[in-house]
Amino acid sequence: MQRKFIDYVLGFLAYAWLLIACVIVLVPILWMISAAFTPGRLLTSVPLIPDPTRFTMEHYNFIFEYKSNAAQVLADFPGAFLRTAQIAIINTVGVALLSTLTGYAFARLRFTGKKQMLLTMMVLQMFPSFMGMVALFLLFRTFGFLNKPNYLALIYMTGAIPYNTFLVRGFMRNIPKSLDEAASIDGATPLQILRMILLPLIVPIIGFISISAFMTPWLDFILQFRFLQPENMTVAVWLFRTTDPFNTLFYNPLRFMAGALLIAIPIMIIQFFMQKYMVYGLTAGAEKG
Amino acid sequence: MKKKKSLFERIKNIFSDVKKNPDPLKSAIMSFFIMGLGQLRNKQKSKAAVFFSVLLVFLLAELLTGNYQYAMDEISRFPADSGTPLYFFRDYGGMISKGLWGLFTLGKVPGQILYRGQFVETFNKTIPWLTADNSVTLLGTGLIALILSGIFLTFWLMNIRDAYISRKAHLRGETIETGLVYVRRLWSDMFPYIVLVPALIMILFFTLIPFLFSFLLAFTNYTYRIPIPNQLIKWVGFDTFKLIVADAGWFKIFSQVLGWTFVYAIMASASCYILGMIQAIIIESRYVKVKKLWRTILIVPWAVPAMISLMVFRNVFETNGLANQLLYMTGTMNGVSSFLYGIGLQGALDNPIFWFSAVYNGNLAKVVVILVNLWLGAPYFMMLITGVLTTLPKDLYEAASIDGASKWQSFQNITLPLILKATVPAIVMTFTFNFNNFGAIFFLTGGGPRWDDALIPMSMKLSGGIPGQTDILISWIYNLSFANNAQLYNVAAVYSILIFAFVGFISVYNLSRSKGLWEED
Fold this sequence. Notes:
The complex is a heterodimer of chains A (289) and B (521). With 289 residues, chain A is mostly helical. In chain A, 71% of the residues lie in helices and 0% in strands. Chain A has helices at 2-36, 58-65, 76-108, 114-124, 133-143, 152-173, 177-185, 190-198, 203-219, 222-227, 235-243, 253-273, 275-287. In chain A, helix 3 (76-108) runs parallel beside helix 6 (152-173), helix 6 (152-173) packs antiparallel against helix 9 (203-219) and helix 11 packs antiparallel against helix 12. Chain A is flat. Chain B has a two-stranded antiparallel ribbon. Chain B folds into two domains: 1-237, no CATH class; 245-319 and 354-513, MetI-like (MetI-like fold, Orthogonal Bundle), CATH 1.10.3720. The mean pLDDT of chain B is 87. Chain B has helices spanning 7-20, 23-33, 37-41, 45-65, 68-77, 88-92, 95-105, 135-171, 179-217, 239-246, 248-284, 291-298, 300-303, 306-316, 322-329, 333-342, 362-390, 394-402, 407-435, 438-442, 458-463, 473-482, 489-513; strands at residues 114-115, 118-119. In chain B, 68% of the residues lie in helices and 1% in strands. Chain B has 521 residues and is mainly α. At the A-B interface, helix 1, helix 3, helix 4, helix 5 and helix 6 of A face helix 8, helix 9, helix 11, helix 12 and helix 13 of B.
């Protein structure tokens, strides 16, 4: 009898905890959605209980139509969206290619300085890229890469290589070496082994790497803010502009919510569908060894 | 294992070797002066060609980027002023010599002065040496020149060593490998490096050079107060390090920021870990049905991009944001405000509450920063620990319950240690991540609230670069590098070195701790 009572209490506590947690998780998100469809620019006018009948598309009209003087062909936001998408695609291809190659070298090839090189790479990546940004800025100016969005992918790629190399290496080490050796006896070159035997087997980790690489440019702000002029603005810069109280022309927290929603939703969908890969990738580095 | 000979012994061996048989030394000396010459003497033509072309490329790179052809004529027409010397490599050197000159001197000729009787401009299209020295550019190009020279030096040493060893083998009557075989062996030895070259070049340019550059800046006097290129920056040794420690006011603010950085990193990681574990255990417990639904809702914060949720929370804690509105709506504003005041988080009995904007609310802002981070970060650990929980061996629990262990005891002695063991690397990773979690501060509070003016030392008021109360080291560094009239690049560089040393140490320790990670199979 007493046992049952304790079970009852514990069950109640568990559900109460989860319910409260869900409320805390969801309230800011609902508020964000509600704000995105509220007219004007005052946070106080956002209703605490979303009322779909009073929603307005005001901010979305602005987002899709407003062209500042600096804008070239497209309106500000769509232009920023396309530029960011370009960076994202270049970054994805580059990161997938480079991490596969380097991961392969570290997993399968023998050479001196291997351990030291991997360790150095892993340590150097702990250094956030903006710490060396004075130098990066100079380098970009010397090479003529400033104000050209696509070249930013170079920096993102470089930042992503070490950790992804580590992941690919870990994944490849779980593939039996006898496969390579058999192919090598049949006369396959190392690159053929990589392409025809290992590549099909490492698709899951490449999937994770590609998704993370694709998402990076949407969420990085500092580099894009510092290296690009307003006419080459990206989504993150657009978003930040709307939350900067000193930018009197563009400051509008409600418009920020509208734009943020537009970016957050696709990313959330990707994350949910790719959950298995994402969790695998995030935990792989942590659990291996 | 073979014991390595000491360097001294190895040198002694070489000397006695040479004494016995001086002939290979001749090849080595020939290669010392002209790369490939020794190899030619050893009758290894293709090898000689390989080494000689390395020399050629290096020399051409220097000569073609220099202006040596104008030197004779111009020096006689524009001699050095009396009193100031003529900097030959500055005026006529190529990328290597001029680069190294710039790295050592950081420039000698600023803009708006007379040099060799001519007026120096910011940029002179026709006469390169009338362009003012830009110390920052010189530092960058100097770094690249240094690295290129290092690569060349490696080849040069390889070439000398090879000339000596090949000759010796030849004299011993061994067949020396022909150049073609050498090239082929080189290719197969080099294959791993060739695969790595694209990544390594990118890391060299976009990680290593910027890193070294910011490392070197720590030893200069470069701040926003130096108008480049009309003024030069200088090497000042450890002066900046001294300034930070010796100036009591600076040091006090610095230690406060550093202390908060540690508190933040520890609290943020620990709170996410504990909450994540509690949620995982609750969801996996037998009391909860439809586990999948709960899990899906609770990982939503993880799926929302961090930058966006942080900026949303910035709005939530605006004075007229969601937080205050909720307090008003539920009629708890006065109660909460006086509670926060009572426990000392709020400095005044405000209504509404100024979460991130009032000078006296520093502690409140810090608590909120940690709570927001909890919202963002707990789901990751929840998923990680859920994963661990599903792999726990069932038989252990059965054995424990047979031995009469209570639920709590088996949790304490089986579940907890197993979870901890599996997640230690993840905890360390999260800690180092949070230590450098620039976004969590920059997008959320922007460093605010400000410090009370009375607490700021005079030296910092004069120099600029004052941090906010919630600034952690990395977001302060951002201000010191980019905020207007606060760019103390040298101070930022010193702090960067500190962070790097600390975080680098932890991550090396974390990575090398697990032996399985490095085993070669």
